[in-house]
TrEMBL record:
Residues 1-21 are annotated as: Disordered. It comes from the Eukaryota. It comes from Ascaris lumbricoides. This is KCNMA1. Keywords: Membrane, Transmembrane, Transmembrane helix. The chain crosses the membrane at residues 49-70. Residues 1-12 have a biased composition (Polar residues).
Length: 85
């Protein structure tokens, strides 16, 4: 009879087990959230690089068009002449 545990300790043990499970679940969730955040950061960096490249190309084109729209663009006239022939 001395070896038997009172019922309250059984409930306490199961409660401790449940809280340890909850802690483990929280740790896994935090890790998953952190790795998801890293993936988002990586994709944002990639998008930034792509957008930077697009903006650079557009600026280059607009600069060339601006130079060509000036009064005496020597290289633009020669390029147009080459295309017409």
């Amino acid at each position: 009879i001395g070896n038997l545990q009172p019922p309250s300790s059984h409930f306490a043990n199961s409660r401790i087990g449940r809280s340890e499970e909850a802690n483990q679940t929280n740790r896994v969730a935090k890790y998953n959230l952190r790795s998801f955040g890293n993936e988002v950061d990586d994709s944002l960096e990639m998008h930034k690089a792509v957008l930077t490249a697009i903006v650079t190309i557009l600026l280059t084109i607009s600069t060339i068009l601006t130079i060509c729209s000036l009064d005496t663009p020597a290289f633009c006239n020669s390029a147009i002449d080459d295309n017409l022939q």
